[in-house]
Amino acid sequence: xxQTFTILLILLFGNSLFSQEQQLYTSKKVKEMAVFPGCENxxxxxxxxxxNCNNQQLSQLLSAxxxxxxxxxxxxxxxxxxxxxxxxxxxEGILIDAHELEGSNLVLADAAVFALNKISEELPPIRxxxxxxxxxxxxxxxxxxxxxxxxxxxxxxxxxxxxxxxLFTLLEKDFRYEIRLFQNKDIKTYEIKNGVETxxxxxxxxxxxxxxxxxxxxIEKEKTADRTLVADxxxxxxxxxxxxxxxxxxxxxxxxxxxVVKVENQKKIxxxxxxxxxxxxxxxxxxxxxxx
Length: 292
Known about the structure:
Elements: H1 2-9, H2 18-21, E1 24-25, H3 47-65, H4 69-75, E2 80-89, E3 95-100, H5 106-122, E4 129-130, E5 136-148, E6 164-172, E7 175-182, E8 187-193, E9 196-203, H6 206-210, H7 215-222, E10 227-235, E11 238-245, E12 257-264, E13 267-274, H8 277-281, E14 290-291
Parallel strand pairs: 1-5
Antiparallel strand pairs: 2-3, 2-5, 4-5, 6-7, 6-14, 7-8, 8-9, 10-11, 11-12, 12-13
C-alpha cells in the first residue's frame, strides 16, 4: 500500500486566507521586485534579472528539500509530474500562503507546498516588493515545478486491480466518511450511514479536503491519534480492521505502517503489520481497501 503510504505521508494541511484579506500585487504593478537572499547585489528595479535570480535561489532550496521525490514518483508509478505553486511574499518579507493551482499533480504539489513552508521557516527575511513611492507591498508569485523519471514498463501498471481505493476513514458518531483515491488521482469523499453510501464531493488535493467541513474538524482529532482507520470488512475467516499508524504525525518523524486487526468475540487482535507496498498488495487483506 505504498501508494497510499506515500501520498498520505506528505499530506499538507492548512491553506491561509491571506490572499482574501490583503491586497496583492503582481510583478507588473510594482516598481521594485522582492529580492531573495543571495540576490541582494542586483538592482531590484531590474525585474527580469531579479526574477531569474529569485527563481534560481528558490530552485536550489526546493531541490534540496525534494531530493528524494524521484523515488516517490517511482513508488507511485508516476513518470512525469508537474505542479504550479502560488505563494505570496509579504510586505514583511516572509514567504506565506503557498498552495497549488488547479491541474497540479497531487503528490508533487503536496510535497512542494510542504517544502516551501519549511523553507519559509528557515529563510532569512526577503526584501519585499515596493511601489513607486517606496511602500512595501504583498507580491503574489507563481512557480512551476516539473519532475520526470523513466519507469520500467512493468512498473507502470497500477498496484491495484480496481479504479479506487480507500486512503483513510473518518468517524463521527453514526457517520463515517471514506476518503478515496482514484487511479486518475482524483480524491472523492463518501458518507456512509447504516450501510448506505452517499457521494459528497470531488477534490483536487488533500488540502481541499482538510479545509472543508466536516473533514477539517475530524482530521484535527486524528492528528493526536497513533493510528487512523483505513477500512474494515469481512474476509472468509472473520471481520478485520485496517489501520495506518502515525498518518498525521509526520513532524514527529515516526514510521508509517499498516496494522491489520482481527475483531473476534469483542476482542481486537493484531494479526499482521506491513511497511512495504508490495507486501501489503500480496496479502489477502488488500481487497478490504478496494472499492468498485
